């Protein structure tokens, strides 16, 4: 069962709010709360408030336990941009864009998968074991013998790497 909550017209640029949203995506609700409490960003308190609202929706509307919830999806989209003007030199004006964002948060229940036992096929007799081993055996002709490399160190074979003059 998924529970959602939305926050519209948040007066923080989406690019800055996504930094905080990436920290809590996929985490359990309790862990997400502690992360948001200790994050020093402007977007952290509104996202914590939204997370608490989604938890309240899950508890009151759907009767879900808060311990089994995690942040399954959090998206931050761009909202409308407020345009302001600032006076500049020589009578010019410069546009200032004050960006807003829309945040949507989805909580979901943690599902514990059922354990499925896997049985492997066991050969019935010793003869069938031997046959399977022979099928897996690699013929000896495919193996190449290792070559032995002799290292000869003599004064004539040594080279200088860096020389001032080329001969």
UniProtKB/TrEMBL annotation:
GO terms classed as biological process: translation
Listed SUPFAM superfamilies: Ribosomal protein L22
InterPro entries in alphabetical order: Ribosomal_uL22, Ribosomal_uL22_bac/chlpt-type, Ribosomal_uL22_bac/org-type, Ribosomal_uL22_sf
GO molecular-function terms, A-Z: rRNA binding; structural constituent of ribosome
Source superkingdom: Bacteria
GO CC terms of this entry: cytosolic large ribosomal subunit
Keywords recorded for this protein, A-Z: Ribonucleoprotein, Ribosomal protein, RNA-binding, rRNA-binding
Keyword RNA-binding: yes
Protein family membership: Belongs to the universal ribosomal protein uL22 family.
Quaternary organization: Part of the 50S ribosomal subunit.
Role description: The globular domain of the protein is located near the polypeptide exit tunnel on the outside of the subunit, while an extended beta-hairpin is found that lines the wall of the exit tunnel in the center of the 70S ribosome.
Protein name: Large ribosomal subunit protein uL22
């Amino acid at each position: 069962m998924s529970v959602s909550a939305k926050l519209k017209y948040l007066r923080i640029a989406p690019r800055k709010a996504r930094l905080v949203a990436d920290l809590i995506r996929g985490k359990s609700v309790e862990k997400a709360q502690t992360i948001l409490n200790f994050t020093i960003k402007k977007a952290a308190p509104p996202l914590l408030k939204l997370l608490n609202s989604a938890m309240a929706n899950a508890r009151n509307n759907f009767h879900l336990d808060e311990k089994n919830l995690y942040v399954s999806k959090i998206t931050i989209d761009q909202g409308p941009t407020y345009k302001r003007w600032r006076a500049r030199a020589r009578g010019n004006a410069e546009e200032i864009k004050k960006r807003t964002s829309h945040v949507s948060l989805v909580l979901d229940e943690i599902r514990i998968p059922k354990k499925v036992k896997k049985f492997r096929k066991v050969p019935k007799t010793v003869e069938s074991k031997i046959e399977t081993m022979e099928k897996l055996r690699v013929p000896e002709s495919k193996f190449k013998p290792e070559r032995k490399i002799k290292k000869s160190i003599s004064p004539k074979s040594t080279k200088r790497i860096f020389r001032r003059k080329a001969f």
